[in-house]
Amino acid sequence: AEIQINSEEHTTEMLARLKYQKEGKYIISIRSKSGLELVRIFLTNDTILANDRIHKKTYFGSAGYLEKKYGISFKLLPLIFGDFIIIDDKVKNVFDCNNGFALYSSSTREKEMLVTIRCKESKIYKLLIDNANGNTSLDIKFDDFKSYENISYPADIRIDESSTKAVIRMEIKKITFDTEEELVFIPGTNYESIM
Fold first, then answer.
1. CA–CA separation, 113 and 19 (whole Å)
2. Is 0.90 topped by the overall pTM?
3. What average pLDDT does range 60-67 have in this prediction?
4. For the chain, where are the alpha helices, taking DSSP H only?
5. Under a CB-based contact definition with an 8 Å cutoff, are residues 2 and 173 in contact?
6. 31 - beta bridge partners?
């Protein structure tokens, strides 16, 4: 994917490659436009590891950090890529499609989530996550739906973050399926470890 991050101060462009295994493992590689790897991130349901190749540091922590910082728990991470995950079987039959779209909402004491689903692709069209105190919100829009091996995915993803006024734009350029590769994270040699 190509990623562009716009903030009030500057614009940053980079490349990203994400690998996923069904057991719930992710490896994300963020590179400069010239191809130099900046960060490699490994995620599982209980662990986050990140190699900062520029500063020679390996960060480690629990997956709970994602939810605390961004409002999305590990099991809901596929929402960022337009996949609606049904965690509760009672939810399966509550969708009522009107004009090709269905709405789903969920809330906890800390977060409120409103999901707009495109019925044709069974994919998310829009996702809004608000803090209950109203301070921060993520507004994520999915567009330009494409298909690869009968799997539908949004090629254009836009994330608006209200507190920093940052806008992240991801354009997925290529998607492939390869079930052979094992995802392994190797901490940087002689890197400083930071929790």
1. 26
2. no
3. 80
4. 64-70
5. yes
6. 15, 37
